[in-house]
Amino acid sequence: MNITELLLSTVRMATPILLVALAELYSERAGLVNIGLDGIMSFGALTGFMVCFLTGSPYLGILAGACGGILVNMIYAYCTISLCAEQIVYGMAVNIFAPAVASFIYRIYFGVSSTLAQGSLMKTIAVPGLKNLPFLGKLLFDQTPMVYFAYLMVAVTAVFFNRTKAGLNYKAVGEYPKAAETLGINVIRQKYLACIICGALAGIGGAYLTTCYVNTYSDGVVAGRGFIALSAVIFGRWSSGGVLLACLLFGFCDALQLRLQIMSTATPYQMFQMIPYVCTLVALAVFGIKKAGPKANGKPYMREER
Known about the structure:
Blueprint: H1 3-29, H2 37-55, H3 58-82, H4 87-110, E1 125-126, H5 136-140, E2 142-143, H6 145-163, H7 165-175, H8 177-182, H9 187-213, H10 225-235, H11 240-263, H12 269-273, H13 275-287
Antiparallel strand pairs: 1-2
Helix pairs in contact: 1-6, 1-9, 1-10, 1-11, 2-3, 2-4, 2-9, 2-10, 3-4, 3-9, 6-7, 10-11, 10-13, 11-13
């Protein structure tokens, strides 16, 4: 087994999970538990692919994926923030609704065929000078722009939450919204902003799958990555650095299972496909119970309530 190729695959496969995990991190830091990530990713994957297919530009596809993700997440936002409905229920509703709509739109436009439509893939862009570094050059500095964007977002998120006043105000909304309101923070606006960021990043994560990873859309292309991203936030202790390490672990498991399938053709491939999900369950069982997230997580906020 080629270790360098395995690590390259780890970086590529961890990227969509990382983008969606950061989306959930922004959502939960504002007190919104969004389990509808799979649905948002599915719609982002479809809109990203269609725009890329029609225009030939993966970059426009990524932008369309972000817009599609925001559009879907606004349904969740209105129901959970304005109507104070149960977040888990509406998150699951998004998981059912959005992939079905995406599949319907694909079939309406492309028809029902055994051959999938194919678009363009985003090309890698090497960083001059750094790409020639031994081992790390190809691993970190010869990737698609979306990989660079994902890891830049980790640093931006860490600085925002820990070194800026706006970030501290943002976290206050997820910890004790009533106290935040008394300090002049508009809690409702902050929660809607969180949903916009969450929708955009999750949509980009979905669009990455159909513009950078594979060049087509199919039902099940997300393959539960939204739930893995959700567990990465818990495993990563609601910090961007911890989320990055968790996503790299899950990406490594995903890359490993693909290579094990090739190496052991006699073994049913379903056994190897279980590896990332078993890793997720073990991570949640071992690490997920030792620290709770933001105190107001999952609780509807009503200004009139005492």
